[in-house]
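Known limitations

Files may contain more than one protein. Parsers should not assume a single record per file. Below, a two-record file is shown to illustrate correct handling: read the sequence, read the token line, then continue until end of file.
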Amino acid sequence: GEALEVNQEVNCVTDFIHGCEDQLKKLKKQKEKGLLYGIPISIKDHINCKGHISSGGMVKFLGQVKEEDSVVVQVLKHQGGIPFVKTNIPQTMINYDCSNLIFGQTLNPLNPQKSPGGSSGGEGALIAGGGSILGIGSDVAGSIRLPSSFCGLCGLKPTGNRIRPFVLTVTAMLGPMARDVDSLALCMKALLCQEMFQLDPTVPPIPFDEQVRLRGAPM
């Protein structure tokens, strides 16, 4: 409900992910509760979700419905998280604004006259507006860090190849965005699990180190 309200104000959601209630029912039956149990999570547009498109803000991808969840979405679900919306990005994503010809311009909820930044601008706007508590963005040259800064949030671009979205000549990283650092740490801890290492053998099988975080060293 809150995501809908925020979306009406700032135009940050591109799609609502179906099957959330079914997934919650399935989770309730499981004996082991994951680290993200029951947490609704917003997902940046280009990250594949089964039964949905990943437009990249480009018309040519509108007919291509994805048949499988990406690894990161599979791991989020394994940990009890519930991906519930996909969020807006600039066309091609190589931009620090957040606008495309399909979904239009996303506004900054702190000041609608301003941009939320990009390319994870829909994530920034939705979380800052109170429509999501945890989101997954991606970053090559600032795409998590810029919208986090513009929208007054916390964001993390992990070390190269820590959580891989897709193969690029430049290393792009998926990473969490939220309102506080503890949420980022919880998300990283949840993602860097055995399930992730099995699904994506290119990810070094190194769990999240809570002690390093508490010492204030880079995550």
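...continuing to the second record:
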Amino acid sequence: KFPVMGVRWRSSLTLGEKEQVNGSSAAAAGGDNKREDGNKQVVASYWGIKGEEVKKEDGTPWKWNFFRPWETYQADLTIDLKKHHVPTTFLDKLAYWTVKSLRFPTDVFFQRRYGCRAMMLETVAAVPGMVGGMLLHCKSLRRFEHSGGWIKTLLDEAENERMHLMTFMEVSQPRWYERALVFTVQGVFFNAYFLAYLASPKLAHRVVGYLEEEAIYSYTEFLKELDKGTIENVPAPAIAIDYWRLPADSTLRDVVMVVRADEAHHRDVN
């Protein structure tokens, strides 16, 4: 349950609480949303459309409204974590040293607070896939041609990174200045990446590849702190257990392992 200024995110409410919220919303709108049998109809979205009742494989209700069971998966933990693209061309070197220069202020600001560090970085990591997918989508419309599957790939990458953020929000509470920093960093990075992608998609993807290499390093350090006991290995959030199909007794360490594997996959794609 994640409080923000006294209000919890809707995705973390229980089913009973959601019904109560929906009932209150319907009453405020002046409608009873009654069915023919006289019972109130639960409206599951702000569009006023009744959503389908989704259940888990065991028959229990699915409590997440921003991703569904068919969007979950099991991460490939056997992926090579040490793979590195050696910069050879000018664009490669530009991308590599740009990413390396961004690491220093990040290390200074977060020190070894890897929970908050992960949460901040995921607000940035989810931007490239959305920007690239959006620009390729527009390009496809302009040229009346297919994208070769890249639009879906990049949008899936952005969604996966966003799910990383949704998970770490349950583990680490951001401070007010960290929330403010998100606005600044995301605003600058979104526009910079947008212009970079327009100028050279190859450079933009290479930047993401090196960013993911740095993410793998950061999560490896996160695991070391968990193993040393510096960071408490708390139970895995419910959202992570459902999204990555983890065992019910999974811990934060298990979550960091699958997130790191995701980052390695994004590295290889880019």
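Parsers that stop after the first record will miss the second one. For reference, the second record is described as follows. The longest strand covers residues 3-4.
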